[in-house]
């Protein structure tokens, strides 16, 4: 009970929200790492996944090659990059991009490769060229699955970006690292709660978008 009260008191202090190392600043840093990593990963994974799904050559090798990054612990990957590139933004972004590419790449490939063959054959019968069929049939059919891959990658990044603090950078992970170093458990718990709430908020947002865009709407009954 004392730790709950202490954590609540920690949240109530204005400097923990608006200071130079407050929640709002750390949240902005955290989102910066996540969004930039997501953008880079999407620029790599989306066109590569579309190409692999459509031409189908080398897909098994390429996808499994990228999936190797998921087997490497994020902290270990960052430490390796720190050794190679030093203490700066590069190790963090390399690790986060490597972790976010696999779900986007895999879902894009699956969505394109397993697009409804009947619709694809119908597009060909209507005289569409292969590229027209890709852009107008396969990609629209694959969008819900691609969206799910982006959603998975984003949630993983929100949780994983806390390791940026290990590289001496900012983000919400600072509350965990600094709190453990200072034996300040309320700060550790508060940082964990903020990361959790951010992940939950993003999950709810993506669920709402998914429901609005991709779930079939009920047709009202005719009287």
UniProtKB/TrEMBL annotation:
<comment type="similarity">
    <text>Belongs to the binding-protein-dependent transport system permease family.</text>
</comment>
<feature type="transmembrane region" description="Helical">
    <location>
        <begin position="157"/>
        <end position="177"/>
    </location>
</feature>
<dbReference type="InterPro" id="IPR000515">
    <property type="entry name" value="MetI-like"/>
</dbReference>
<dbReference type="GO" id="GO:0005886">
    <property type="term" value="C:plasma membrane"/>
</dbReference>
<keyword id="KW-0813">Transport</keyword>
<dbReference type="Pfam" id="PF00528">
    <property type="entry name" value="BPD_transp_1"/>
</dbReference>
<dbReference type="InterPro" id="IPR035906">
    <property type="entry name" value="MetI-like_sf"/>
</dbReference>
<keyword id="KW-0812">Transmembrane</keyword>
<feature type="transmembrane region" description="Helical">
    <location>
        <begin position="92"/>
        <end position="113"/>
    </location>
</feature>
<feature type="domain" description="ABC transmembrane type-1">
    <location>
        <begin position="27"/>
        <end position="206"/>
    </location>
</feature>
<dbReference type="GO" id="GO:0055085">
    <property type="term" value="P:transmembrane transport"/>
</dbReference>
<feature type="transmembrane region" description="Helical">
    <location>
        <begin position="31"/>
        <end position="55"/>
    </location>
</feature>
<keyword id="KW-0997">Cell inner membrane</keyword>
<protein>
    <submittedName>
        <fullName>ABC transporter permease</fullName>
    </submittedName>
</protein>
<dbReference type="InterPro" id="IPR051204">
    <property type="entry name" value="ABC_transp_perm/SBD"/>
</dbReference>
<keyword id="KW-1003">Cell membrane</keyword>
<feature type="transmembrane region" description="Helical">
    <location>
        <begin position="189"/>
        <end position="209"/>
    </location>
</feature>
<feature type="transmembrane region" description="Helical">
    <location>
        <begin position="61"/>
        <end position="85"/>
    </location>
</feature>
<keyword id="KW-1133">Transmembrane helix</keyword>
<keyword id="KW-0472">Membrane</keyword>
<dbReference type="GO" id="GO:0031460">
    <property type="term" value="P:glycine betaine transport"/>
</dbReference>
């Amino acid at each position: 009970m004392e730790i709950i009260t202490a954590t609540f008191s920690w949240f109530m202090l204005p400097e923990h929200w608006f200071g130079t190392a407050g929640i709002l600043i750390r949240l902005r840093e955290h989102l910066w790492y996540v969004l930039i990593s997501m953008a880079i990963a999407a620029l790599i994974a989306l066109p590569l996944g579309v190409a692999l799904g459509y031409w189908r050559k080398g897909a098994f090798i390429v996808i499994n090659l990228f999936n190797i990054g998921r087997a490497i612990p994020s902290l270990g990957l960052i430490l390796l990059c720190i050794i190679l590139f030093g203490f700066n933004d590069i190790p963090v972004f390399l690790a986060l991009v490597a972790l976010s590419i696999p779900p986007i790449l895999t879902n894009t490939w699956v969505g394109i490769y397993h697009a409804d063959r009947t619709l694809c054959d119908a597009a060909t019968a209507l005289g569409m060229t292969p590229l027209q069929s890709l852009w107008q049939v396969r990609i629209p059919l694959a969008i819900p699955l691609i969206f799910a891959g982006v959603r998975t990658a984003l949630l993983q990044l929100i949780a994983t970006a806390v390791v940026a603090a290990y590289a001496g950078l900012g983000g919400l992970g600072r509350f965990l690292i600094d709190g453990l170093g200072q034996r300040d458990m309320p700060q550790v718990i508060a940082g964990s709660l903020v990361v959790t709430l951010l992940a939950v908020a993003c999950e709810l947002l993506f669920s709402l978008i998914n429901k609005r865009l991709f779930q079939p709407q009920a047709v009202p009954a005719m009287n």
